[in-house]
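Hey,
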Amino acid sequence: MSIRIGIDLGGTKIEGRAFAADGTELDRLRIATPREDYPRTIDAIIEVAKSLETRLGQQGTLGVGIPGSVVKSTGLIKNANSTWLNGRALERDLSQAWGREVRCANDANCLAVSEAVDGAGAGYHVVFGVIVGTGCGGGIAIGGQAHNGPNGLGGEWGHNSLPMQVEGEWPGPPCYCGKRGCMEMWVSGTGLERDYLHVTGKSLRGPEIVKLSESGDAEAEAALQRLEDRLARGLSNVYNLLDPDVIVLGGGLSQLDRLYVNLPPLISTYTFGGPVETPIKKAIHGDASGVRGAAWLWPLE
């Protein structure tokens, strides 16, 4: 196999990219996701992968980043917000359709792998990747490989409860997972918008709140400070439990440069024993991290 193909299976699009062994991107292809149709989703993923091979005239390994987790004992998908995947043996079905082994992993784990191999986490042994975008998720890469765990829950930090809650935060907003007060409901783009609406009575999009804050608006600045404090509290649990060598942020909110200044001292006020030294970095590969990490589910040789 002379190339590696990564697929990012999203709720609205399926994006595939082919890479040389050194990480150079060779080609890319994107099509719409056949929503609510499992057989057509399988066909679409294989169509993208085969098209890339045909266009490049080379065979490749295939890895797929998914919005859910693979349970090791059963091979079935769970926790996918693309709900038509849940309870399906996606790896097995893709491998049968492909005629070769296909590897799947949670999309946040793929981000962690991508950044561990040749991104902001390169050279670090344990990388914790955080996606803070429309939602909030996490993934772990150890030695450049995804740590999924036997239950497929490795890094599922977005569905832990917001820790050290203060007045007004209990029990927290309901989450699509069926529980309340999950980190995803607080430290995401939608969480920022919900919090701003709750406090001010005004409905604004995340970028509008950021822009207002930059112009000196006190309410918008207060909303961003609440976001940072909640993010720091959530990450303090990651430090206390995993103590990773580096934390890499991806997703839309990761573009806020203020996070890399404000989070470290805040986190140090919440972690056990005080100050921590783990660096927090912005994902180098940005939106491409997930599809790159899917390709690197097949380790470099």
